[in-house]
Amino acid sequence: MLPTVTLISWLLTAGIGAYMLSRWIADGGVRKQSANADALSPAVVLGHASLALTGLALWTAYTLTRWAPLAWSAVLVLMPAIGLGLSTVTLLTPFPTPGSPGRPGVGGRLAAPAEDVLASTLTDAALTRALTDAALASRLVEEVLASATADPVKPRRAKGHAAALIPASHGLLALTTFLLAVLSAVGTL
Fold first, then answer.
1. Contacts of 42 (CB under 8 A, 6+ apart)
2. Do residues 139 and 126 make contact, with C-beta atoms less than 8 angstroms apart?
3. Mean pLDDT per 10-residue segment, the chain (189 residues)
4. What DSSP string describes 42-107?
5. Domain that holds residue 174
C-alpha cells in the first residue's frame, strides 16, 4: 500500500514539475540561462528533471516487483534530485533588485514600495535646503508629487501570487514523496 501511495505522490510531483519545465523551456529558459555567464546553468535544471524521472522509473519498477534494492536506489537517486531542485528554486526565484534610474526596484517581480520611489528623487542637499526655505519646500513637494503621478507604481496582478503556488506545491509534494519513499524503503529491511 505505501509503495503505491508513494508512486501516486511521485507522479503528482512529476506532473507539476513537467508543467514548470515546459513553461521554463517555452519562455526561453535554456537560451536565457546559456546566454548569461553568471546565471544558473541549464544543466542544473535539466539534471534535476533527469534524476527525478530516473528515480520515478526505479520506484515504478520497485512498486511492480517489490525488490528492495530498487527502492533504495530510487531513494538514493532522489537525494541529488532534491538538491538540484532546491538550487533551481533558490537561484531562479526573482527578487527585488535596483532598477534603472527613475524605476528603482523593478529588476525582480516585486516592485519597490512607493516611498522608495519618492525617496529616490530627493537628495540630502535638496532636503536640507527645503527645511530652511518654505518656497523651496513647496516647490519640492510639487515636483515629488508630479514625478510620482507621472510614473505610478503599477498594481500587481493576482496571477503573480497564484503562480507561486505551483513551485510551492511541487516542493511540498517532493518532500512528501521523499518521506514516503524512505519509509517504504525502511519497511523492506
1. 29, 30, 33, 34
2. no
3. 96 94 86 74 90 97 96 96 88 55 42 50 65 72 70 55 82 95 94
4. HHHHHHHHHHHHHHHHHHHHHHHH--HHHHHHHHHHHHHHHHHHHHHHHHHS------STTSTT-S
5. 2-97+158-186
> Which set of grid coordinates corresponds to residue 66?
517489490
Is residue 143 domain-shared with residue 73, that is, in the same domain?
Answer: no
The three three-digit cell numbers of residue 165, written as one number: 503556488
Looking at residue 119, its pLDDT comes to 54
The pLDDT of residue 116 = 52
Residue type, 175: L
Does the residue 42 lie in any domain?
Answer: yes
Mark whether 179 and 88 lie in a shared domain: yes
141 with 163, same domain? no
pTM of the complete model:
0.64
C-alpha cell of residue 188:
523492506
